[in-house]
Automatic annotation (TrEMBL):
Role played: Provides the (R)-glutamate required for cell wall biosynthesis.
Species of the source: Mitsuokella jalaludinii
Protein name per UniProt: Glutamate racemase
Pathway of action: Cell wall biogenesis; peptidoglycan biosynthesis
Catalytic activity, reaction form: L-glutamate = D-glutamate
UniProt entry keywords in alphabetical sequence: Cell shape, Cell wall biogenesis/degradation, Isomerase, Peptidoglycan synthesis
Listed NCBIfam families: glut_race
Chain's gene name: yrpC
Residue numbers binding substrate: 7-8, 39-40, 71-72, 181-182
GO MF annotations in UniProt: glutamate racemase activity
The protein's enzyme class: isomerase
Coiled-coil regions, chain positions: none
A Pfam family assignment: Asp_Glu_race
Cited PANTHER family: GLUTAMATE RACEMASE
Length: 260
């Protein structure tokens, strides 16, 4: 059986990319809801409907687990999906706790989509772990748009990031938490803007580790030739140009993988 990765768009490839490195003998399905991306500026009700439709499709593919490789979809819909389906469902959360655990003295900047930044799940997370009020939140909705059109390194991207990150005295911060899977594509430009004292923290590694833990508990890990099937909003991706586009994203992730 295969492991499904679901995202509003192409950002979740960053989670799949990590999983492919640490699970070389598993087979995967990647579902990008390209018809409805971006989720971060939609209503909660809209996002819930999109996620339900995607899950109905993926469960119909007889997958053994679903990774919701989207912070926005996690914050809105994961709890409801776990009530509906009896398979492991692993969500993403901005790794603010991880960043605070690494350095509990300096400030932490969490970048995410607007719906994640303003969501109840984020507030609960911060109330639980940010006892010293060290976390600041930064919505970066345009990064999703840049990522979806493969605009990774441009004057517009750099100007946007300089403007938004420049709102904060970055010398006071220990970490930038990448609270949206789309944001990983821009680590090189961010690294050029950030001071040396800051490092990146994201939830990809922890999410895949939890996936492995749950599958192992169910004796669900396999030893198969690695494969990936790609779907856009339920349509199998077979067009050569689109497969080449996905390959370019994976190459981009190879490029930024070791940037910390």
């Amino acid at each position: 059986m295969k492991i499904a990765f679901f995202d509003s768009g192409i950002g979740g490839l960053s989670v799949l990319h990590h999983a492919m490195r640490v699970l070389p003998n598993e087979q995967f399905v990647f579902y990008a809801d390209e018809d409805n991306v971006p989720y971060g500026v939609k209503t909660r009700e809209e996002v819930m409907g999109f996620v339900q439709q995607a899950f109905d499709f993926l469960v119909g593919c007889d997958v053994k687990a679903i990774v919701v490789a989207c912070n926005t979809a996690t914050s809105v819909a994961v709890r409801e999906m776990r009530h509906r389906y009896d398979i492991p469902i692993i969500g993403m959360e901005p790794a603010a706790k991880k960043a605070l655990d690494l350095d509990g003295e300096h400030r932490v900047l969490v970048a995410a989509t607007p719906i994640t930044v303003h969501g109840k799940k984020m507030q609960i997370l911060i109330d639980r772990f940010d006892k010293d009020h060290l976390v600041d939140l930064l919505p970066l909705p345009r990064l999703v748009e840049f990522a979806e059109r493969e605009e990774f390194r441009s004057e517009a991207v750099r100007a946007y990031l300089e403007q938004e990150l420049g709102r904060f005295p970055l010398a006071d911060y220990s970490a930038l938490v990448l609270g949206c899977t789309h944001f990983n594509y821009f680590k090189d430009t961010m690294r050029e803007i950030m001071p040396e004292n800051m490092h990146f923290v994201d939830g990809n590694e922890g999410t895949v580790r939890e996936l492995m833990r749950q599958l192992d508990a169910r004796h669900g890990l396999e030893n198969l030739p690695q494969t990936v099937d790609y779907y856009y909003s339920g349509r199998r991706v077979e067009d050569a140009a689109e497969l080449a586009r996905i390959a370019r994203y994976m190459e981009r992730l190879d490029l930024v993988y070791e940037i910390h």
